[in-house]
């Protein structure tokens, strides 16, 4: 088996919201070109963990962090690591689709324009490539200048994925990206993830066990802010090492 490169490496990562110890000694390596699923019951720290990976949590004043997070070998908690730089490598898709109240085209070119790209031909190419990459081009190619709010929820979510792709990230963080979608849109986004992992690394928080089993290569089971078990998804779902993992995936608690 080829040894895949490590994208994220967290070392004794701890996080507190005031006195609430939300992440406890997380040591986890995320590999490139894989889908890594984060599962666990409500309130166990899944969202906190992925928002730590792009430093979104630091917007919350009561947050304290100790330990280290290395992204591609560099410590992103280091004050010298610019958050703007991190965000060019790490995109995020949220639970509820959140397109801007602008046209489909403007949603996609927003990031590239911030990065200084002004050439219309290049922007047009980015729009087509990103929408194709997010498997929504055929559905929207004739209405690029219509407002994104006119799209269905599932289309809006794929548009948000396309918006992420437009700035050519390395990692895509997804926080329950299909929980607001119908089964058909969910399937489309899941199929899309399988395509995207050829070029990107994906970390997804999901409450849906079947989804984690279907789409991910590795799974981390979080409980009360700790990682109980982290392993190949096949192993987690067939022969988990920890009784608590087994109880959770078989629906005995959580
Ligand atoms: N902004 C915040 N301020 C204070 N405490 C917070 C904040 N966000 C989360 N917490 C606390 O941190 C813990 C972990 O929450 P988090 O949202 O990361 O869990 P989760 O596993 O993603 O839950 P869910 O599955 O319900 O979304 C909880 O005890 C929660 O109350």
UniProtKB/TrEMBL annotation:
It holds the Pfam family ABC_tran. CDD domains: ABC_PstB_phosphate_transporter. GO terms for molecular function: ATP binding. InterPro entries: AAA+_ATPase (IPR003593), ABC_transporter-like_ATP-bd (IPR003439), ABC_transporter-like_CS (IPR017871), P-loop_NTPase (IPR027417), PstB-like (IPR005670). It comes from the Bacteria. The keyword Amino-acid biosynthesis does not apply. This is Phosphate ABC transporter ATP-binding protein PstB.
